[in-house]
Amino acid sequence: MRKNEPVLTMIFHTTDLKRVFLCTKTASQPKYELLKELVEVHNKEHGPKNEIKLVYLLLEKIPAPEQIERNSVIIFDDVVSEKMDEKIGLFFMRSRHQGHTIIYLS
């Protein structure tokens, strides 16, 4: 099983999901093109009230966990770096209280 298959399953089975934040330097990968297409299909089928927004961010620009809308999924993919470990660590410590789901792929 490839690492992105469980991620896609988790995203679309998260209740009341509002946003998916993708923090990666390689957002043009086929798996993220698929994610974009799946979000578009979801939005067409479920309408504006249940719309999911897909947000691409560089790790350096991601806001603090408390500033991100509740019930969001944050995906960190291939962002291993000593200077960013502390910032990513904050998401694992604080995001549960914000209703976020954190996914770290490496």
Summarize the structure.
With 106 residues, this protein is an alpha/beta fold.
Total strands = 4
Give the neighbour order of strands across the main sheet.
2-1-3-4
* Number of domain modules: 1
Looking at the structure, the CATH topology is: Cobalt-precorrin-4 Transmethylase, domain 1
Unreliable spans: none
Give the termini distance in whole angstroms.
Answer: 15 Å
Q: Provide the β-strand percentage band.
A: 15-25%
Largest sheet: 4 strands, parallel
Query: Helix segment count?
Result: 3
Question: What is the SS-derived class?
Answer: alpha/beta
Mean pLDDT: 82
Please give the CATH architecture. Answer: 3-Layer(aba) Sandwich
Task: State the CATH class.
Answer: Alpha Beta
Shape: globular
Account of the protein in words:
- The protein has three helices and four strands; from the N terminus they run αβαββαβ.
- It has 106 residues and is of the alpha/beta class.
- The chain has a single domain (4-105), classed as 3-Layer(aba) Sandwich (Cobalt-precorrin-4 Transmethylase, domain 1).
Features:
106 residues; alpha/beta; Cobalt-precorrin-4 Transmethylase, domain 1; 3 helices; 4 strands
Task: Draw up the topology in text.
Elements: H1 4-12, E1 19-23, H2 30-46, E2 53-57, E3 72-77, H3 82-94, E4 101-105
Parallel strand pairs: 1-2, 1-3, 3-4
